[in-house]
Amino acid sequence: MKTAVYQKIGGGELKIEYDENAPCIICGEPVIEASMGGTAICPWCDCGNCRYCGVQLPFVFGDQEKTKQKVREHMKWHKEHPASAEDK
Ligand SMILES: [Zn+2]
Ligand SMILES: [Zn+2]
User: Fold this and answer.
1) Of 3, 23, 50, 51, whose CA is between 20 and 30 Å from 72?
2) d(Cα 63, Cα 82) in Å, to the nearest integer?
């Protein structure tokens, strides 16, 4: 477990405990670090970039289900082509 610390508007801190191995709600990979978007979404999805190759993730604006589907397809591709993650 890790603890994320968020600065509260008007002062003070908000501490949230989270499981760094819990799957991200978008890509399904472990979140590793809490993002500004919260502890359920990984910092990479929060920025919209792939954690493995750094390309922009295929986000579908306004459609989280489609976004999830497309991003997970991309993650699956990395698992099937581990060596390709090296050359960007
Ligand atoms: Zn993610
Ligand atoms: Zn990638």
Assistant:
1) 3
2) 28
Amino acid at residue number 33: E
Tokens of 77: 């591709």
Q: Record the tokens describing residue 58, joined without a space.
A: 């295929």
- 3-49 confidence digits (pLDDT tens): 999 999 999 999 999 999 999 999 999 999 999 889 999 999 999 99
H or E element that contains 7 = strand 2-7
- Would you give the end-to-end CA distance of the chain in angstroms? 32
pTM above 0.90, yes or no: no
Q: What is the DSSP letter of 84?
A: G
Coil, helix or strand at residue 37: coil
**What separation in Å is there between the alpha carbon of 26 and the centre of ligand 1?**
5
